[in-house]
Structure formats: C-alpha cells, structure tokens
Amino acid sequence: MAQIIDGKSIAATERELLVARIEKLKAAGVIPGLCVILVGEDPASLTYVSSKEKMAHALNMKGVIHRLPAETSQQELIKQIELLNADDSIHGILVQLPLPPHIDADAVAEAIMPEKDIDGLHPLNAGRLLAGRPCMIPCTPNGCMELIRSTGVSISGKTAVIIGRSNIVGKPIALLLMHEHATVTICHSRTKELAKIASQADILVCAIGRPGMIKKEMIKPGAVVIDVGINRVNGKLCGDVEFNEAKEIAGYITPVPGGVGPMTIMMLMRNTVEAAEKQNMNK
Ligand code: NDP
Prior knowledge:
Order of helices and strands: EHEHEHEHHHEHEHEEEEHEH
Number of domains: 2
Shape: globular
CATH class of the largest domain: Alpha Beta
Distance between the termini: 52 Å
Bound molecules: NADPH dihydro-nicotinamide-adenine-dinucleotide phosphate
Radius of gyration: 19 Å
CATH superfamily of the largest domain: NAD(P)-binding Rossmann-like Domain
Strand order of the largest sheet: 1-11-8-7-5-6
C-alpha cells in the first residue's frame, strides 16, 4: 500500500519558511508584491486567480488581481504588463492561462521582464532552465520536485517517465529530473506503447488532463507517482491516475486534490518572495 504524499502538509512547511523570509523583507522595508492578470471570465481561472490572491494576503504579501475584459487586445495587455514591469511595488507578474484565442501567449510571456516572470515562461528563464542555470522555475514543476524529494527516494540514476509535454508542466519537470540525474522519457499523445513505458518508471509524473487514464498495470510496483492532472468528473475533482487502484501498487502517490495543487500555489509565493529578495538586493 502506497504512502500518500501529503501536498497540504508539505506546503504548510514551506509556508513557515516563507513567513520568515517575508518578515525579513518587511524589516528591510519591502512587501513582496504579486500581480495576477486575468483576461476574460473563465470560471476555473477565476477560482485559481482568487486563491492566489488569498494566499498572498494570508502571507501578508501584496496580492492584486487585474481583471481585463475578454475582448482586451494583445497590445493593451502588453501595455498593462509594461506598467507592472516598471512598478517597484510589484515583484512578480503572472498572466493566467489560457488566454483568449486572439492573444498570442508567447508574445505575452516575452513582455514580462524575466526578473518578475514568476511562472518561468519567458524564453530567458526557459533557456536558463534548459541549460541548468539559476532561473525562475515554473511553479507546478518546482512543486512536483519538492513532493518527490519529500519521499526521501533518491532521484539520481532512477528511470523517470513524464506523460505530457507542455511548456508549463511536462517539459520543465523532465528537465528538472534530468538535472537531478534521472534517466528521463517524455511521453505524449502520439507515444506508442505508453503503458509499457510507464510501467518501467521508478518516478512517474502524469500531466495529461485525462481523468483516471493511468491504471494499475501502468505503474511499476513501489514507484513514486505524481499526479498533476486536475479534472472535474460529475462536479468532483480527480487526477489523471486511477487513485484507488494505483495506491495498491505504487510506493508513494499524490492525491487529487491535496497533492500537487497546494504545492503549486506555495511555489508561486516562493517565486514572488525570491523575486522580491533579488530585486531588493539589486537596488
Ligand atoms: P496540456 O493540455 O498543455 O498538455 C497535456 C499533455 O498531455 C500534452 O503533451 C498531450 O500530448 C498529452 N496527452 C493528451 N492526451 C494524451 C494521451 N491520451 N496519451 C498520452 N499523452 C496525452 O496540459 P498542461 O500540461 O497545462 O496540464 C496537464 C494537466 O495538469 C491538466 O489536467 C491541468 O489541469 C493540470 N495542471 C495542474 C496544475 C496543478 O497545480 N495541479 C497546474 C497546471 C496544470 P500532445 O502534446 O501530443 O498533445
């Protein structure tokens, strides 16, 4: 029977560390500031954005949401970002995805100054991550690494399989695991023999967005299973992994909810605090 990786409690420990760093910044006259920009009215995005704001406030940070109408032009959005780039009270900027189809998400990511790019999507941060250099690491991948480390299982030399190759989740996780010396395979919708590949993984990360797609027979006995997926089935949240059967065979597994989600938001706060520390040092 797998040990459940308790994302809430690991996030709570990280929170304590952040509180101390925020206090230190405050003593130096700096309040870490986070601004989330939401374009449009997507209900899931609205929930995510307001939980980020709430968490910032709970940590005594500045947390602001800029809500823009769905018809906002790319140019107007970029103008808003440029104002925030120049605003000393904002240390981290995040544009909630997905954006309406008329806006090019890559152009938006490039508009955020790399020092304030707490989602790690600017090409400078993405390139530094590729090269294994210090950079802003995307929040969900960063959280997944903390969850894997929390098991005490050594990553070096292990076989890791990542299912999903998005720029924000799958690819950065693969890079982070490779930098920690795992042997990494990335799978996606065109992968042949997915079950066979997945079942060889000592560390299996599922970032697909397909409820319950990963079954027991796709999991190696004793594996660390990180379920990034957030799916809603009949109003209930569930992951990409068939949790009840997977926990019978995995060594460690994250639940949904209560696994990757709480860590993602805490990593966003950590990136903002880190950004504030660096920007204060460079003053
Ligand atoms: P994307 O839709 O951008 O990527 C999904 C990936 O899954 C793609 O690479 C796709 O392959 C692959 N895929 C889809 N279907 C299959 C299949 N049948 N077999 C194998 N691979 C498949 O999603 P994201 O990376 O943004 O997010 C993934 C999931 O994680 C979503 O459920 C999302 O809600 C969740 N999420 C959770 C977060 C959290 O905090 N817990 C944060 C961010 C995301 P291809 O590239 O070939 O299309």
